[in-house]
């Protein structure tokens, strides 16, 4: 049973009102809400409904299937599963069990389909990862397995088999040293994991170390449990050594343990063929072909047996002629005369054939690498074409050859601005002003750079200086208006625009600008008048129209906005800005179908625009069409293969659809092409962490801080990994680096210091670190950390006092409120905990987290009916939360309804497979249903878990009793 809180486990408390101890835990409010809002599975149906309308027969059929499966009656199990899935096609336990059976039958492809279905609908990754691995092995997807399944920080039994599966993948890929290492890692984690010994035996056998191989096999066979795989390998080794009699004895033993093993029958058939006993060989081959008619190895042996048995005027004319001539020159002649490329580039540039000009300049510069004029021209062309990364590359080369050229420096600065690398943009633009201090253009460009980093005062100083050198420059004045607006000096912006408007009262653009200035200053009536006047002067003034439309939407008149935009569309049928605005309005009205229609239209007329792509992707997502979102993004990437943002978008889409390998591949490509590589690497690292590939994530994070030494998020991620590993040396060194960046006014370093001491179980120092963090100001993370330090050091009253103080200041902080209720219960103040949750429910009666905790508290207090009511309400509101399912199930189980609890616990385990408490509750419930064999296996896994839970002592005692009985 779950009392929801963040990764804390409650100590056991005796309570006569509850037959077994109750668990108090919550998964963290904000991560949970983020998961609900942002990570909702794309399927429109829920995982599966647990309610009164669901036929109980589905659960009965599933349990029958499970019993048959455990009795090795897979055909019966499949029949029961088909019945269950007919009643509820999205019953995940049935889907997962079907995958297990398909794996046993050697159908990895079919199993992967079932597993993908389950993953897309929220099944826990830890429940599926080993099954995915086995399915990949069956399909020979060795490289894919190695790219998506990595060791991490899961339970030891899962990590052990992951090492083993990686060993098998390496072995299948002929990387024997890696296979040996992975098998050994599995044995280091669990010396009794005999399958790893068989793997090591296979490696030894490949190296013809048959004696060593047999030692590994005999060690595996010394275990009490039958191991047909070991006998199969032993038979193969004997056969390799020419001991056919011993080989046949070994393979007969293997088949006596598992007569359905295809490899064993293939081996025996081959041995019979060697002995020219073709009838017996034929019998084994026929058994295989009856089950798998297209099995190629069996088909081959069958053939052996049968054989043994019977893809301007003159100027313009001159330029056209030059272009045509050069186009007709063979490529080898062009390469031998690179000046032809340069000439072709110049003439095409003057003729407006910019793409052809760029292509020939690029070819020219491959030969004449130091031609500054060609570099400058190519840089300008790349900027004009919008390929700022390519411009950046060629202009950097030009700058190395001619470091003080103002034109090159200006283009470099402007390219960096477009690439959002504002620090470097300002560096180059400032160098221009040092070379040309009185250049109005240089000062104006530098002002753009300063504005990009938020230094509006410096930007205004530069613009005022530029205005002195070029008083009548409209560009300077308009940029000055923007700087004043962005620095919230609206009156100064209005003064400039009013003067410009008064000088040209019929200038629609200036009237639009004046309307914007008035709107930003809060004078919406004057803003509307100015926009309307601009539209009277120019009915195609799209900017004014859009501003008016947005004002209508805000005022609740979206129909008026839509009508005015549609009328403008009749005059401007191919305007993507109007299409985009129409899509946005429909989206705001929750009319996602029409929003998508307009986003598609906007993209079709502006297919080079990433923002248009992003909106279209959002439209597909809003319409539950991830496939189309991925397809349109992939098509964009094919046309722009170096677009980092597109790769990031693609990666996020693959994450959303449960394909971490493709996501990580896209994030790696984004990091390769991103100018601000640190941010891209951080996204990659987070994806690797989400995929539990901690080793790769750690390497990526170190690359991130090397690339961007002041990216605090990367340091925080590394520190959290060190805390998870209780790595004192690395953790404190990283915290020191973070403190050097953030300074003493930021509490982050102190909070992380406290978390590190908590991991090291130095609760006194943890307490001092969190108190230090609170000296800089109120911080909920510091309070929650202080609560942990107090509780872990047995100072429950101090914990309650700290939480009560925060709750008094910030009663809306639900996370702290839930922790306070938990603390009351831990302190034995059960009535106070019950009353506290009742008060929380008065203000938030439908908050599932509060309902869940209220259920556990009331159950502890003996209010069983109220507890069941709260738990059921929580489950109705949030039906796919493992903690809530576990709470409801445990209440039902302890109220003598194990049959009601069982499907709830099955679902909870699918959602959170590594949770030992769910396994404990499921084990107890199964035992109540006289299913001790399965129950004992689950109970052993719960006890072996590294994670503590309140009932762990009781679980150990129960397991011992069962083992002795």
TrEMBL record:
Coiled coil: none annotated. Pfam families: TPR_16, TPR_19, TPR_6, TPR_7, TPR_8. InterPro entries: PEP-CTERM_TPR_PrsT, TPR-like_helical_dom_sf, TPR_rpt. NCBIfam families: PEP_TPR_lipo. This is Uncharacterized protein. It comes from hydrothermal vent metagenome.
């Amino acid at each position: 049973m779950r009392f929801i809180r963040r990764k804390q486990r409650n100590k056991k408390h005796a309570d006569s009102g509850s037959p077994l101890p109750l668990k108090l835990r919550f998964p963290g409010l904000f991560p949970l809400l983020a998961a609900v809002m942002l990570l909702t599975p794309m399927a429109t149906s829920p995982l599966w409904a647990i309610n009164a309308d669901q036929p109980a027969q589905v659960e009965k059929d599933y349990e029958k299937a499970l019993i048959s499966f455990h009795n090795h009656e897979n055909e019966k199990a499949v029949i029961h599963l088909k019945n269950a899935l007919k009643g509820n096609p999205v019953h995940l336990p049935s889907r997962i069990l079907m995958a297990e059976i398909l794996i046993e039958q050697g159908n990895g492809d079919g199993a992967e389909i079932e597993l993908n279905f389950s993953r897309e609908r929220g099944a826990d990754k830890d429940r599926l990862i080993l099954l995915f691995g086995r399915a990949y092995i069956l399909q020979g997807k060795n490289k894919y397995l190695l790219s998506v399944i990595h060791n991490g920080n899961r339970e030891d039994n899962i990590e052990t088999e992951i090492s083993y599966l990686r060993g098998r993948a390496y072995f299948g890929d002929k990387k024997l040293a890696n296979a040996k290492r992975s098998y050994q890692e599995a044995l280091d984690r669990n010396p009794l994991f005999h399958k790893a010994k068989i793997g090591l035996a296979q490696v030894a056998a490949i190296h013809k170390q048959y004696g060593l191989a047999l030692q590994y096999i005999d060690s595996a066979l010394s275990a009490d449990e039958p191991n047909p795989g070991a006998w199969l390998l032993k038979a193969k080794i004997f056969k390799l050594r020419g001991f056919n009699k011993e080989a046949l004895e070994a393979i007969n033993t293997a088949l006596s343990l598992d007569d359905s093993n295809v490899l064993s029958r293939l081996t025996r058939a081959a041995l019979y063929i060697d002995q020219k006993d073709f009838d017996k060989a034929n019998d084994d081959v026929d058994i295989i072909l009856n089950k798998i008619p297209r099995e190629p190895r069996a088909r081959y042996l069958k053939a052996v047996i049968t054989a043994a048995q019977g893809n301007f005027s003159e100027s313009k004319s001159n330029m056209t002629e030059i272009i045509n001539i050069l186009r007709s020159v063979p490529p080898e002649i062009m390469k031998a005369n690179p000046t032809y490329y340069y000439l072709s580039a110049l003439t095409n540039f003057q003729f407006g054939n910019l793409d052809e000009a760029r292509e020939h300049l690029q070819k020219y510069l491959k030969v004449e690498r130091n031609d500054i004029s060609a570099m400058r021209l190519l840089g300008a062309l790349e900027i004009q074409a919008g390929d700022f990364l390519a411009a950046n590359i060629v202009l950097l080369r030009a700058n190395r050859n001619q470091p003080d050229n103002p034109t090159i420096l200006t283009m470099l600065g402007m390219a960096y601005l477009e690439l959002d690398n504002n620090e470097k943009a300002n560096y180059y633009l400032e160098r221009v002003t040092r070379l040309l201090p009185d250049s109005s253009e240089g000062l104006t460009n530098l002002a753009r750079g300063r504005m990009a980093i938020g230094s509006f005062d410096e930007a205004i100083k530069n613009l005022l200086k530029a205005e002195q050198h070029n008083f009548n420059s409209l560009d300077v004045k308009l940029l000055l208006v923007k700087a004043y607006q962005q620095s919230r000096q609206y009156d100064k912006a209005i003064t400039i625009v009013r003067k410009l408007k008064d000088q040209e009262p019929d200038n629609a653009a200036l009237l639009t600008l004046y309307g914007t200035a008035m709107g930003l200053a809060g004078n919406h009536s004057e803003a509307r008048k100015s926009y309307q006047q601009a539209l009277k002067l120019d009915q195609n003034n799209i900017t004014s129209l859009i501003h008016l439309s947005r004002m209508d939407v805000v005022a609740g008149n979206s129909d008026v906005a839509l009508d005015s935009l549609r009328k403008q569309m009749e005059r401007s049928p191919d305007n993507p800005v109007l299409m985009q605005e129409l899509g946005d309005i429909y989206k705001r009205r929750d009319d996602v179908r029409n929003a998508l229609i307009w986003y598609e239209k906007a993209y079709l007329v502006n297919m080079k625009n990433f923002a248009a792509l992003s909106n279209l992707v959002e439209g597909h997502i809003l319409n539950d069409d991830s496939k189309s979102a991925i397809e349109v993004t992939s098509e964009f990437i094919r046309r722009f293969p170096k677009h980092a943002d597109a790769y990031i978008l693609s990666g996020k889409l693959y994450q959303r659809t449960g394909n971490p390998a493709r996501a990580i591949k896209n994030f790696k490509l984004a990091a390769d092409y991103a100018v601000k590589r640190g941010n891209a690497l951080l996204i990659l690292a987070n994806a690797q962490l989400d995929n539990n590939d901690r080793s790769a994530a750690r390497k990526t994070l170190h690359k991130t801080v090397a690339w961007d030494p002041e990216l605090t998020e990367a340091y925080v991620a590394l520190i959290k990994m060190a805390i998870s590993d209780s790595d004192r040396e690395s953790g404190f060194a990283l915290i020191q680096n973070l403190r050097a960046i953030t300074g003493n006014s930021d509490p982050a370093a102190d909070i992380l210091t406290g978390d590190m001491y908590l991991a090291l179980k130095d609760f006194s120092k943890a307490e001092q670190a969190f108190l230090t963090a609170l000296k800089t100001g109120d911080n909920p993370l510091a309070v929650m950390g202080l609560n942990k330090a107090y509780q872990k050091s047995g100072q429950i009253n101090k914990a309650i006092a700290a939480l009560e103080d925060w709750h008094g200041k910030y009663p809306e902080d639900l996370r702290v409120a839930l922790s306070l209720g938990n603390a009351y219960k831990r302190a034995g103040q059960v009535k106070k905990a019950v009353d506290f949750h009742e008060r929380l429910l008065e203000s938030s009666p439908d908050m599932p987290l509060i309902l869940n905790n209220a259920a556990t508290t009331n159950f502890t207090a003996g209010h069983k009916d109220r507890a069941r009511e709260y738990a059921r309400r929580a489950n109705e509101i949030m039906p796919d939360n493992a903690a809530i399912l576990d709470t409801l199930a445990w209440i039902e189980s302890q109220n003598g309804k194990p049959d009601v609890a069982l499907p709830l616990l099955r679902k909870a385990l699918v959602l959170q497979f590594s949770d030992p408490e769910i396994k404990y509750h499921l084990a107890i419930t199964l035992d109540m249903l006289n299913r001790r064999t399965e129950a004992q296996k689950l109970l052993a896994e719960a006890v072996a878990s590294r994670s503590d839970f309140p009932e762990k002592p009781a679980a150990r005692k129960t397991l011992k009793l069962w083992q002795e009985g």
